[in-house]
Every structure is written in C-alpha cells, then in structure tokens.
Amino acid sequence: MSDSEVFLDSFFVARQPVFTRELTIWGYELLFRNSECSLGADVGNEDAATSQVIADGFGLIQEDLAEGQRLLVNFPRNMILEDAAALLPPDVCIIEILENVDPDPDILKVLNTLKEQGYTLALDDYIGQKGFEPFVELADIIKVDCLELSIEELEKIVASLAQSESLLLAEKVEDNEMFKRCMDLGFDLFQGFFFSRPEIIPGKKMSSHNLNRMQLLRSISGSEFNVDDLTNAINSDVSISYRLLRFMNSPYFGLPNVVSSIQQAVVLIGYQKLARWLRVILLSDMCSGPASSELAFLSIKRAKFLELLSLELKSPGLSSDSMFLLGLFSLLDVLLGKSMKNLLKELPIEKDLMAALCGESSIASVWLELVIAFEKAKWETVGSIINSQKLSPLSVARNHLAAMQWANEIVLLSKE
C-alpha cells in the first residue's frame, strides 16, 4: 500500500484558510483526526497525529499550495522535543506551539534552535496567559481566539502586544462584523469562516455577467432539457464555450478524440455528465471576490464529497446528482450576495434540497451539517453523524480527502 493510501485510510483532515487583510490566501492550517480513534473524544495521541501529518499529510497537501503560501502544523510538547520539525521544510511549514505546551527550559532551547534554523514559530490560542512571555518573545505569529473573548478582552490583548514584532492572527473569525472589528484592532491575518457567510445588500442587482450564468445554470438544473437549446446557450457565450472546450480536452478527461464543439461533447460524454461539469465551471466563473478561489474550492469540494458519500449509503434518500447539487449550491448566496431563498426560486431543484439550502430541516440537512463540520474540524459532530448514518469512518475519510484533491484540480482547470 502506498503512503497516500495509508494516509487516506487513516485520517480525517480539515484545511482551513488563513487570509491577509486584503482577503488573499496567505496559507492554511492543517487539522487532523485519526479515524480509528473514538471520534467523540479529543485527540488522544497528539504525537501520533502530528507524526502522521509529517509522514503522509504534508506531501499530499503541499501539492495544492500556490507559490509563497504557508502551512501551519500543530506541534505538541513531545514532538517539539523530538525535533520532528526537521522533517518539514522551513520555507513552507510553520511550527504551531499548542496552548497546552509550557515554556520550560527544554522547550525554549529547542524552539530557539528551530528559529536559528530558519523555522517560523506560531503561538496558538494566546489569551494573555501569565508565564507565556518567553513564547511571546520567540513567536513570529501570535494566534488569538476571537470566539472565546469579549471585545474588551481582545482590545486588552492587542494592546499588551503593541511592542511585539509578531504578526497577529485572529482565529475563529465567524462573521464579517468580527473580521472588520479585528481589522480595526490591527490584526494582520485572519482564520475562520467569515468569508463563507453571505453579506446581503438590499436592492443589490446581479451583474449582467452573473445573470447570464444564472440563466444558463437554470437551463441545466432541471430534469427536463433540450440538448439543442443547451448547445445554443453555451455557444452564445464565448468565454464559457472556450473554457468548457479547454476543460473537456484536458488530460483530466482523457477523451480519445479532440472535442471541437459542444455538440460533440454531448455525444461523447452525454448530457448529464456535460451538465454536471458545466455547473462546476459556471459556479467557478461566478467567483469574482477576493476570496473567490477558496469559495469555489469549498463549493466544488462539498459537491464531490456528497456525491461520493451518496454511493456509500444503503438508503441515500437523494440521488448522487442531487447530493452533488446540494454541495455545489451551498454557497451560492455568498457568491452572489443575494438571499438563498430568492436565488433558488430561479432554479428548478428538489424541495428537500431547497429546504436544506435555506436552513430548514429536510432529509438533506444532515449532509450539509456533516460537510460543514468537517471544514470546521468539529470532529465530535462528524463522528455523531457518521455513527447515526451507519457509515464507515475510513470510507468517509477517504472520500473527503479525495474530494479535496479533486476540487483543487477542477478549480485550477476551470480557471485556465
């Protein structure tokens, strides 16, 4: 069995983005959970988890990084002392000192050596703890958990770090209001899911660019269709038709013949498959904000994960195509700045999907809950859903990582 297969069979992994003040992707934190352990408990063996990150996870995730992006990796006490960081490249990986590590002489000696070797150090979950001054002096990045602190406490912590030369990273920033507040306080980096929350502006009109794509999306979202109408609609949009043909002729598809027209694409792969790929391109094309690449990645990853998951279920309740749509459309309100309910009125989709996407209870709701819990590394919720739906943890872990890798490839292809 290959290293990647061992990794796929062993671990749940969440990749959380870290943004700059301009909302560009600065890097990612990798959060791992061993699927063979009890999912309802905290990580029982931090050393084993970090060792597996180093042995298997880093090589897989590194392939998805753009030039200059960084990776934060959690390091418990023993892994720091055992010099496990030596396995990671200092120009990419950042050693994140967990909040339960004490700044004793042995730890400080190793951390000083790592600094001399060119490693960047990050201090996790700093809340102004007494006795942590040596860590504050050493750390290049100080992470502050905004979810657990009041505004007054945040202001006090930022003021206490005013003389520090460290970058300040606000973590668990869950909405745009908190993001703006942390910006005002002087934070440099931001981690959390504020970018995936919709900002609805009353009276805002959809751009003609996105209006055209929504019209095309509508034409391929129902069960009834006309191939000629679809072909004409695609051909009328030069950008979409060009990019779709490039997409179809990429090595990823591996088609035996060059696809030179939309009609030929329909003949070669069939309407249903063409429609699915076109939905992905259209959604990716609507991602125009500064955090667009991450939103496209999340939407497409959710779609693929739920599609793969549906194939594992004994009584799925929803078809694989419906599960794919559920994930793909789950951030549509964020992409377009309009309410989900209003957007879905324009799309002919199933009632259960519409209810789940609008935050209402339906047979589809649990699957959105699962994929969001994965992204936020809420392993207890992930484990509870896996158990209640009688799924294999190993299979779920495999499918989620496969979906992550697939989504990254598709986002890159669709932007070419």
TrEMBL record:
<dbReference type="Pfam" id="PF00563">
    <property type="entry name" value="EAL"/>
</dbReference>
<dbReference type="InterPro" id="IPR013976">
    <property type="entry name" value="HDOD"/>
</dbReference>
<protein>
    <submittedName>
        <fullName>EAL and modified HD-GYP domain-containing signal transduction protein</fullName>
    </submittedName>
</protein>
<dbReference type="InterPro" id="IPR052340">
    <property type="entry name" value="RNase_Y/CdgJ"/>
</dbReference>
<feature type="domain" description="HDOD">
    <location>
        <begin position="206"/>
        <end position="395"/>
    </location>
</feature>
<dbReference type="InterPro" id="IPR001633">
    <property type="entry name" value="EAL_dom"/>
</dbReference>
<dbReference type="InterPro" id="IPR014408">
    <property type="entry name" value="dGMP_Pdiesterase_EAL/HD-GYP"/>
</dbReference>
<dbReference type="InterPro" id="IPR035919">
    <property type="entry name" value="EAL_sf"/>
</dbReference>
<dbReference type="Pfam" id="PF08668">
    <property type="entry name" value="HDOD"/>
</dbReference>
